[in-house]
Amino acid sequence: IKIDHMSAEVTDSNPYSRLMALKRMGVVKEYERIREVSVLIVGLGGVGSVAAEMLTRCGIGKLLLFDYDVVELANMNRLFFRPEHAGLRKTEAATATLESINPDVCLEGHTYDVTSVPHFEHFLDRLRRGGPDGRSPVHLVLSCVDNYAARTAINQACNEADVAWMESGVSEDAVSGHIQTLFPGRTACFECLPPLLVASGVEESTLRREGVCAASLPTTMGIVAGLLVQNALKYLLDFGDLSYYLGYSALTDHFPRHTLWPNPDCGNMWCRRRQETWRGKGRAWQRRETDC
Ligand code: ATP
Ligand code: ZN
Q1: What is the 219 CA–ligand 2 centroid distance (Å)?
Q2: 44 lines ligand 1 (CB under 6 A)
Q3: d(C-alpha 164, C-alpha 20), whole Å
Q4: Helix, strand or coil, per DSSP, at residue 37
Q5: Within 10 Å of residue 263's Cβ, how many Cβ atoms?
Q6: Which is the closest atom of ligand 1 to the Cα of 150?
Q7: Coil, strand or helix: which one is 245?
Q8: For the purposes of burial, counting CB atoms within 10 Å of the CB of 265, is it exposed (0-12), middle (13-18) or buried (19 or more)?
Q9: pLDDT value at position 104?
Q10: What is the ipTM, given to two decimal places?
Q11: Which whole number is the average pLDDT over 69-76?
Q12: Closest alpha carbon to 227 in 250, 205, 204, 202
């Protein structure tokens, strides 16, 4: 069934009238702007696939999905994928499901490792030209990967292309997580305050213990996906207060919230360049942030 997207008609059977009610109730000024928005998601695991589904149900204009893996039966403790998807590429299974939920969303899927040298240029190009018109940059990148190497590649591409991104993570014991908003030059990038492991240059794969698998819970992953997409909607549709770093501890229901400023001595050359560009404008921006 093709649903007339964002139809102004208010009927109980039209899912978009419930979204447009956000506008009538004064939460969002122009909800229909979501149709012009393009979001790139890296990683379609427990967080990324759910984030993609949420954005699809919100009526996003375009989604660009990246993942190198196939669906496994071992992924069934997460949301979104179903047993009949086992063996399919995550990008293909996801685009088919999302298309059936909302055929109005423009979907693009790429199955490769974003850290690999031959693919990085293509990835960077999709950031720069993946907007709904096929010429402008994407509005936002969501990082939903589970390793530092992929986050470092996303950080590099976003600093180079000057594109805003939001990062997410869930701990190995599955009972805590976080989201972070990164504006090149304006807030800390992934290398401004690197995790100790990244700063010390330890190869991540050497740390994996044979036969020991990380825990994972659909609850924590669903909560982190919800926090991530809520923050993305606030940014894209300009409502509420954006979170720059928002933690979540499931054991104590604690949500620490901070702003992380850029490091002038960051090891990433593109981050330092973006900081220079923002130095003049950025001061005014920082003042406004601290005033609130
Ligand atoms: P497991 O817990 O078994 O590792 P998972 O690999 O699905 O499960 P998640 O944390 O749920 O882990 O999801 C992370 C997703 O990010 C995965 O689908 C993975 O394939 C994807 N991913 C990680 N690194 C890259 C990369 N460099 N390029 C593309 N996709 C990546
Ligand atoms: Zn930096």
Answers
A1: 32
A2: yes
A3: 26
A4: coil
A5: 17
A6: 27
A7: strand
A8: exposed
A9: 95
A10: 0.97
A11: 94
A12: 250
- Relative to the alpha carbon of 224, which ligand is closest? 1
Instruction: Report yes or no: 135 and 129 within 8 Å, Cβ to Cβ.
Output: yes
Mean pLDDT value of segment 3-25: 70
Report yes or no: 59 and 6 within 8 Å, Cβ to Cβ. yes
What's the predicted TM-score (pTM) here? 0.92
Residue 271 annotated as catalytic: no
User: What letters, b where the CB count within 10 A reaches 16 and e where it falls short, cover 88-104?
Assistant: ebbbbbbbebbeeebeb
- Count Cβ atoms within 10 A of the Cβ of residue 24 and give its class: 0-12 exposed, 13-18 middle, 19 or more buried: exposed
Catalytic residue among 58, 189, 213, 292: 213
Does pLDDT of 292 surpass 50?
Answer: no
Q: Could you give the dihedral angle defined by the CA atoms of residues 20, 22, 25 and 27, in that order, rounded to the nearest 10 degrees?
A: -140
Higher pLDDT, 160 or 207: 160
Ligand nearest the Cα of residue 273 is 2
Identify residue 272 by its one-letter amino acid code. R
Residues pairing with 176 in the sheet: 249
- Length of the chain measured in residues: 292
The residue ranges of DSSP E strands in 51-184, in sequence order, are 62-66, 106-110, 140-143, 165-170, 176-182
pLDDT at 47 over 50: yes
